[in-house]
Design a protein that fits this description.
Structural class: mainly alpha
Radius of gyration: 26 Å
Largest sheet: 2 strands, antiparallel
Strand order of the largest sheet: 1-2
Strand content: under 5%
Distance between the termini: 73 Å
Order of helices and strands: HHHHHHHHHHHHHHHHHHHHHEEHHH
Number of helices: 24
C-alpha cells in the first residue's frame, strides 16, 4: 500500500525488490573490498594476463607435443578402437559421479566465508547471489572438456582418422557434456550429504556397469557423448566423411540435457542451505590459506572424510604388537568406509591397468602404466593414516619404546595386506573383463605381470611413507628463480609438493616399459623403493627437534 492507500502493482513491487537486492549486493561487495576479501579489478586483470601468457608460453608447446604423440602410427590405431570409445564413456561417467560426490564437499555455487555468511542470512534469492560463481564454474568445466576433446581428437585428425566435421562434433559434444557434468556438481551440492553419497556411488556403479554392458552404456548421458568418438568401423566412410547415424540423436539428447540443466539450475540454487554454504566456504578458505602457505597436505586434510561408523569399536584386538597395530589401523580405516572402498577400487583398477599395459607395446604401455601407479598411490592413502601419526609423533616420547623405523614397519602391515587383496581382486577383474569382451582377450596374467603389480603396490607404500614425512616447505624453495619467462620458483615448490605422486607415475611407467623389453626392468621398482626409504630416513631425521 502507498501513502494514498492504493496498492503497488506486483510488477513494480518486483522491480523494487530487485533494485533493493542489487543495492544490498553492491554494498556487500564494497564491504568485502574494504576488508580485502575481494580482489580489485586490476588484480583480476593481472591474473587473467598471467594465465593467458602461461598458456601461450607453456601450453602451446605442450598441446603440440600431445597432438604429435597421439598421431603416432603406434598410438592412433588404439585410440580408434571400440574399447577406446567404451573407455571414453567410462571416464565421462566416472567424472559425473565424482562431481556429484565433490558437490557434497565443495560445490560450484560457493563464495568466500564472509560473503556466504552474509548472503545466507539475507533474503536475497540464491539464484541471484550465487549466480556468478555457478556460471563461472559452468563455463570453466565446459571449456575444459572441450579443450581436452579438441586436443585428443586433434591427434586423430592429424593421423587422418577424423575429418574437420567429426572433430567439431566431438568438441561440441564435450562442451555440452561439460554443462551436464556441471549440473551433476550442483545437484551434489544441493542434496543432503547422505543422498549425495548414495546417488554419487550409484552413478559410479552405473558408469562401470555401462562400460561392461555396452548397450546400456550407449543409453546413458555419458554414452551420448562417447558415441561421437570415432572407431575403426565409423571413423571415415568411403566418401571421406563421418557417418551421421546415431550422432544427430546423441547430440540432440545432449543438447536437451544441457538445456534442462540451465533451466533447473536456478531452482537448485534457491534450494541450497545456508548452513551448508557457510560450512563449505569456511573449509574452502582455510584450505586455500594452508595451500598458499605451502602446506598442501594440511589443505587436503580439510577435505578428508571424517569417521562415521564403528566409533565405539574396540581398536586393540590382540596383545601381540604386529596384530595390535594391524587391528588398530584396520578399525581406523573401517571408520571411513566410503574412503576405504574408494581406495580399494582405485588399487584394483591400477592392477587392471597394469595387466592391460603388459599386453601393449613399450611405446604405448607407459601411458597406461603411469596412471596406474598414480591410482595405486592414491588408493593406498586409505590405509596410510598410521604413517602420518608416526610423523606427528617424531620427537615425542616413544610409544612402547619403539623407534620411528619400527613404528613405520608395524604400520606398513595393513597397507601390505591391502595391496595383496587389491592384486588378487585386480587379477580376478582382469580375467572377468577379458571373458565378457570388455578388455582384449588374452592369457591369464603371468608371473611377470603379478610381480609388476605387487612391486607397484610396495612402491606405493614406500612413497606413502616418504609423503607422510614431508615436513614443512624448505625455505630454499622460496627463493626466486628468474628466467626470461619470469619467476619459476613456483614450479620447484609444486614439484616438492607432488614429488611422491610424480615418482609413482615415473616408476610405474618406466618399470612397465622396461619389463616389456626384458625381465630386468622389474629392478626399477626395488631401486625406487630403496631410494624412497633412504629419502624417508633423511626426512625423519630432519623432523627431529
Amino acid at each position: 500500500m502507498t501513502a494514498t492507500g492504493w496498492r503497488v502493482p506486483p510488477a513494480e513491487e518486483a522491480d523494487r525488490a530487485a533494485a533493493s537486492w542489487r543495492v544490498r549486493s553492491a554494498a556487500a561487495r564494497d564491504l568485502r573490498r574494504t576488508r580485502g576479501d575481494r580482489p580489485a579489478s586490476g588484480d583480476r586483470a593481472l591474473t587473467v594476463y598471467a594465465g593467458v601468457l602461461a598458456l601461450l608460453i607453456a601450453g602451446a608447446p605442450l598441446v603440440r607435443a600431445v597432438v604429435l604423440a597421439l598421431s603416432d602410427p603406434a598410438v592412433a590405431p588404439l585410440l580408434v578402437s571400440t574399447e577406446a570409445r567404451s573407455a571414453v564413456g567410462l571416464v565421462l561417467g566416472l567424472a559425473a559421479g565424482g562431481l556429484l560426490l565433490l558437490g557434497g564437499m565443495r560445490g560450484p555455487a560457493l563464495r568466500s566465508a564472509f560473503a556466504s555468511a552474509t548472503l545466507a542470512s539475507s533474503d536475497v534469492p540464491r539464484r541471484r547471489s550465487l549466480h556468478g560463481p555457478w556460471v563461472t564454474w559452468l563455463v570453466v568445466l565446459a571449456c575444459t572438456l572441450a579443450l581436452l576433446a579438441a586436443v585428443s581428437a586433434g591427434g586423430l585428425w592429424a593421423f587422418g582418422a577424423v575429418t574437420a566435421t567429426s572433430w567439431t562434433t566431438i568438441v561440441l559434444a564435450a562442451a555440452l557434456y561439460g554443462i551436464v557434468a556441471a549440473g551433476c556438481w550442483l545437484l551434489g551440492q544441493r542434496m543432503p550429504p547422505t543422498a549425495t553419497a548414495a546417488v554419487g556411488s550409484g552413478v559410479l556403479a552405473l558408469a562401470v556397469l555401462g562400460w561392461i554392458l555396452r548397450p546400456l552404456g550407449a543409453a546413458l548421458p555419458w554414452g551420448w557423448a562417447a558415441v561421437t568418438w570415432p572407431t575403426t568401423a565409423s571413423a571415415v566412410t568411403s566418401t571421406g566423411t563421418a557417418p551421421t547415424s546415431g550422432l544427430d540423436v546423441a547430440l540432440a539428447a545432449l543438447g536437451l540435457a544441457a538445456v534442462a540443466v540451465l533451466l533447473v539450475a536456478p531452482r537448485l540454487l534457491d534450494g541450497l542451505r545456508g548452513e551448508a554454504l557457510v560450512e563449505q566456504a569456511s573449509r574452502q578458505d582455510i584450505a586455500r590459506t594452508l595451500a598458499v602457505t605451502g602446506d598442501v597436505a594440511a589443505a587436503g586434510a580439510r577435505y578428508r572424510a571424517l569417521p562415521s561408523v564403528a566409533r565405539r569399536a574396540r581398536a586393540i584386538l590382540s596383545d601381540r604388537l604386529p596384530l595390535a597395530y594391524l587391528g588398530r589401523d584396520l578399525v581406523g580405516a573401517l571408520r571411513t568406509p566410503f574412503r576405504l572402498a574408494a581406495g580399494m577400487a582405485a588399487s584394483t583398477t591400477a592392477v587392471v591397468l597394469l595387466s592391460l599395459a603388459s599386453s601393449l607395446g613399450p611405446a604405448v604401455a607407459w601411458t597406461v602404466a603411469g596412471p596406474a601407479g598414480v591410482l595405486a598411490f592414491a588408493g593406498m592413502g586409505a590405509v596410510s593414516d598410521g604413517f602420518r601419526s608416526v610423523a606427528v609423533a617424531i620427537g615425542a616420547p616413544a610409544l612402547f619404546r619403539q623407534q620411528t623405523a619400527t613404528a613405520l614397519a608395524l604400520h606398513a602391515i595393513l597397507p601390505a595386506v591391502f595391496g595383496a587383496v587389491a592384486v588378487a581382486l585386480g587379477v580376478a577383474a582382469t580375467l572377468a573383463l577379458g571373458a565378457v569382451g570388455v578388455l582384449p582377450a588374452g592369457p591369464a596374467p603371468d608371473g611377470t605381470t603379478l610381480a609388476l603389480s605387487a612391486g607397484v603396490a610396495l612402491t606405493a607404500i614406500a612413497l606413502r611413507i616418504v609423503d607422510a614425512l614431508r615436513g614443512t616447505l624448505p625455505l630454499s624453495l622460496l627463493a626466486p628463480i628468474p628466467t626470461p619467462a619470469g619467476d619459476v620458483s613456483i614450479l620447484a615448490q609444486l614439484a616438492w609438493q607432488a614429488d611422491a605422486l610424480l615418482s609413482a607415475f615415473a616408476l610405474a611407467a618406466s618399470a612397465t616399459a622396461l619389463t616389456l623389453a626384458g625381465p630386468l626392468g622389474l629392478l626399477v621398482l626395488p631401486a625406487g623403493i630403496g631410494v624412497g626409504l633412504v629419502r624417508a630416513r633423511s626426512r625423519a631425521l630432519a623432523l627431529r627437534p
